[in-house]
Amino acid sequence: MKQKLQPPASPSPGRELGRELATAVVLFHEAIASRLGLSATEWRCWGLLEQYGPSTAGRLAELSGFTTGAITGIVDRLERAGYARRKRNPHDRRSVIIHPLRIRAMRRQVWPIFESLGQGMSQVANNYTRKELDAVHDYLQKTVQVLHAETVKLTSKDHSSRSTR
Predict the structure, then answer these.
(1) How many CA atoms lie within 13 A of 147 on its CB side?
(2) H, E, C per residue of 81-113
(3) R_g of the chain, CA atoms, integer Å
(4) Where are the chain's structural domains?
(5) In whole angstroms, what is the distance from residue 88 CA to residue 53 CA?
(6) How does pLDDT run across 95-134, given as a tens digit for each residue?
(7) In this structure, are residues 29 and 23 in contact, taking their beta carbons and an 8 Å threshold?
């Protein structure tokens, strides 16, 4: 009989808060994506195209941390949903450039959501000094870097410690 893994007896407050924050962010983006008929991953990849402009699959893989193979599937689904289109790369006949579509319509749909979020976050920020907010900014910026690096490790072709059932 396999023994169940137990969580640490007293997890660090940062770890627990990190888990809660990650869950809240994922569920928030999943709720937005659901309204658009997308998965959270597709929504976020579309967002990278909208933010950084048309990109090759390789560039989108770099930005997202996913493999180019995973990006191919995501772009296939975005194309089927009418949110992206592949066009030939004029500088390299072997590749395509992925273009986000329906940008204005998408912005109109999600603007009220992010406007409300921004108002709520402004209320939170009003409780802190500039110095405290600078420390939070630094912490979050470093957290994003760690998360990106960990995503790359998890999605890389060389990742050999895949779990088995």
Answers:
(1) 12
(2) CCCEEEEECCCCCCCEEEEECCHHHHHHHHHHH
(3) 19
(4) 36-101, 111-154
(5) 15
(6) 899 999 999 999 999 999 999 999 999 999 999 999 999 9
(7) no
Q: Distance between CA atoms of 73 and 77, rounded to whole angstroms?
A: 6
pLDDT attached to residue 3: 64
Query: Residue 85 forms beta bridges with which residues?
Result: 99
* Domain 36-101 top-level CATH class: mainly alpha
Q: Are 32 and 105 in contact (CB under 8 A)?
A: no
Quote the pLDDT of residue 164: 42
Q: Most distant CA pair in the chain: distance in Å?
A: 59
Alpha-carbon distances, residue 151 vs 4, 62, 86, 105 (angstroms): 26, 11, 25, 30
**What are 38-89's pLDDT values in tens digits?**
999 999 999 999 999 999 999 999 999 888 899 999 999 999 999 999 999 9
